[in-house]
Amino acid sequence: MPHMKIQADRVEYADVQKLRELYRQELNCQIIRDSFLSRGLADPYLLQVDGRVGGYGALSNKYDKGRIVEFHTLPYVRSAALPMFRELLAASQATHIEAQTNAPLMMLMLVDCATNLIVEKVLFRDAFVTNLTSPGGQFRQATSQDFPSLPEPSGDWVIETDGRLVAWGGFLTHYNPPYSDLYMEAAEPARRKGFGSFLLQEIKKKCYEAGLKPAARCNADNPASRRTLEKAGMLPCGHLLFGEVKSKNG
Questions:
Q1: What is the pLDDT at residue 1?
Q2: What interhelical angle do 223-231 and 195-209 show, nearest 10?
Q3: Is residue 87 within 8 Å of 179, Cβ to Cβ?
Q4: How many CB atoms lie within 10 A of CB 8?
Q5: 124, 126, 100, 122: which is closest to 212 by C-alpha?
Q6: Does the global pTM surpass 0.85?
Q7: Domains of the chain, with CATH numbers?
Q8: For 35-65, what is each residue's pLDDT tens digit?
């Protein structure tokens, strides 16, 4: 490879916003850190190769501070991705790298530049239609009266049985369109009775009616949540991994 001059500079979000659209289109899946840059939770870096824009990266500055959470190169400099990424590491002084396994370029950088890899999250996509029924519960939209001790509802949808809430949840929309992120919780006495999976099934329908595509994630060490999601038709499509940046001698 001919010698290239690579430079990584801290910039404003507007300087990388258009590049991020290419990144989103290339991945074509839910990006679970998608809102970090737009919400100021990550610092953007512009990457230049021989004086021309070549890509960008993002360093988390609040949650899991010090992690590289995004990296993208334009096609004409993709062959220089590894030296570009190493320049990003140096400029940002990153301590960790994370990657979704369904994001091939970031996975390559993780394997090449990180050590002590840990699986943190299991990622899910909607895989099949289910026809679950609720064991005596009614699915309905939440109201402010459902959560009187909280400043705002804990979910947009609930399951009520015998005049009490047994499960609640909804979907978050601060992800790359058209993806949304499902969440739910069941009251302790109502767990392992099918309420959670039924709730997720019905919330999936609400997602599609809103023009959104359901997605989800759970902690890698939470088999109960994984079983609930799978019963509702959500299947694993990847993992979120992270590791420590290798030392220069590593």
A1: 53
A2: 60
A3: no
A4: 22
A5: 126
A6: yes
A7: 6-121+240-245 (3.40.630.80), 129-232 (3.40.630.30)
A8: 999 999 999 999 999 999 999 999 999 999 9
